[in-house]
Specification:
Length: about 120
């Protein structure tokens, strides 16, 4: 999910840069290269359309940035121990059901002593 949002973030950054550069400014910018496309955007030209597009893409960019920051922060707060399966750490051994200590042997084996010569 985060990789998809990161790709969307790059695309939005590129689109936002292009739309900002296409807008007319005091030095005309790249808007001078748009040619006679002003009739496509309406009677007022591309200024109003590009301003609204910049606002919309900028808002989406900011929301996407906040979501990415939240998701990366959640991933950072996870511990490596949270992902360890505990079933594989403990060998499967039968658990004794009695709570008493094992009884001591009643007779000890007698060691054999070799005969002296």
């Amino acid at each position: 999910m985060t990789s998809t949002l990161l790709v969307v973030q790059f695309v939005l950054a590129i689109l936002l840069t292009i739309i900002i550069l296409l807008q007319k400014s005091s030095s005309i910018g790249l808007g001078a290269y748009s040619g006679s496309n002003e009739s496509l955007f309406g009677a007022k030209g591309p200024g109003n359309f590009l301003t609204k597009a910049t606002m919309a893409i900028g808002l989406i960019f900011v929301i996407n940035t906040i979501v990415l920051g939240y998701m990366y922060n959640e991933k950072r707060n996870e511990s490596a121990i949270d992902n360890v399966k505990t079933e594989t750490l403990i060998p499967s051994m039968p658990v004794p059901t009695t709570e008493q200590a094992p009884a001591a042997p009643t007779s000890a084996p007698v060691p054999s002593v070799p005969a002296a010569k």
